[in-house]
Amino acid sequence: MTTARWVIVAAVLAVGLAIAWTARPQPQTAAERVDRISAELRCPVCQGLSVQDSPSETARSMRALVAQRVAEGRTDDEIRAEFVRSYGDWILLEPPLLSVGGLVWLAPLAAIVLGAALAWSRARAPAPIAVVAGPTDEELGRLRELVASEPE
Question: What is the pLDDT of residues 4-49, one digit of tens each?
């Protein structure tokens, strides 16, 4: 290999190592954890905003409680679970799918899928054949009499 090729290989390796080094997970600071957890919780007063974005006094109290729990060393899941115990799954901006709140989101999708399956099965089924009963012996006899009595 020539020197130019070695330089190119070394440069590619250096760039790859630099990218890998910067892409590694960084430990989060306590303030970043408080911001992330607060952004996942719904403000009970504003209802359309996260605790992180809400200016209400309740949201400030909840952010302070999150900061206190982070300072105590609790995990993110423990902190979220504490709020879920107090407020229910509603407090999470993204409730778990396998909860009552999650089923509310899945029910319309299930109805659409079932409706489409029903429509598909009806469209694919052959049309029912109408069975017409023939005339009875008594009706045939009367018809023969009528035909015989007609003038030619």
Answer: 888 888 889 988 888 877 777 766 788 889 999 999 999 988 878 8
pTM, to two decimals: 0.51
| Phi, psi (deg, nearest 5) at residue 50 | -80, 165
Task: Give domain limits for the chain.
Answer: 27-91
The CATH class, in words, for 27-91 is mainly alpha
Say if residues 138 and 128 touch (Cβ distance below 8 Å): no
